[in-house]
Amino acid sequence: MEAEIADGKTYKEIEHTLYAKIVNMVDLEKAFSKEHHEQWQIRVAKTPMNSGEGTIRVRKTIPNIIDVANTVYVQTTKTPSPEDGGRDEVPIPTTLDNFVQFQRFGESGLIKDRYCFPAIGTDYIWEVDVFYIDGAEIGSGKYSEWVKIDLEVSVHDKSSPLPLLPFEVTDLIVSQKGYRTPEEDAIIDKLYDEVFRTKNKFLV
Question: How crowded is residue 7: how many other Cβ atoms within 10 Å of its Cβ?
């Protein structure tokens, strides 16, 4: 996987997001790339005093999950792109100090490991985010069975059939936001509340 580009230019983000239980965690070892993420963000709401909404996120990335000497920090601003159903994002380099500010700002964050696999038959990449069980140390590999899976595509392929996943899963949710059943929405909401999100570290 190419390193995240943080050059201050606008990039188009159109992605499919899936949720599932991974059957065998050993399959993660087949990934061609892995890294550790900790990210915090603030949301900017649309109000009578501005002309748009979006998010500002700062992410810490540790290559190979444990290569802390090469940790990088990137701040990314995202705004909706209604004409194509995606988002416009602008990433720029930032610092540990800025990251700590966002740890304080954010009501919640995501702390996860990302494993990347080729999407067979395409030029795309499956990004598989796995989340630690409560109390597990970073790098321990003690993950929840539920994973979040992203596939970023071009605008031309956003309606194309999805390629096969690179491992066996159960309880797969492929419907996208706005097209899910109430039951699927309830499962995903519970995942974010109980598995995916980490509460603000500075609150007592």
Answer: 9
Q: Topology of domain 11-198, per CATH?
A: Hypothetical Protein Pfu-838710-001 (2.40.320)
Domain boundaries, the chain: 11-198
Q: Which two tokens stand for residue 24?
A: 């065998």
C-alpha span between 106 and 39 (Å, rounded): 9
What pTM was computed for the model? 0.93
CA atoms within 13 A on the CB side of 149: 29
| DSSP reduced 3-state for 1 | coil
Positive or negative: CA dihedral 148, 144, 115, 43: positive
pLDDT in tens, 88-139: 999 999 999 999 999 999 999 999 999 999 999 999 999 999 999 988 999 9
- Reported as type and span, the H/E element at residue 188 is helix 182-191
Buried b (16+ CB within 10 A) or exposed e, 18-48: bbbebeeeebbeebeebbbbbbbbeeeeeee
H helix runs in 4-146, sequence order: 96-105
Q: Which residues contact 204 (CB under 8 A, 6 or more apart)?
A: none
Residue 118's alpha-carbon distances to 113, 146, 162, in angstroms, are 17, 20, 13
Q: What six digits make up the tokens of 183?
A: 């039951």
Tally DSSP H helices, then E strands, for the chain: 2, 11
- Whether the Cβ atoms of residue 76 and residue 89 lie closer than 8 Å to each other: yes
Band of pLDDT at residue 159, cut at 50, 70 and 90:
confident
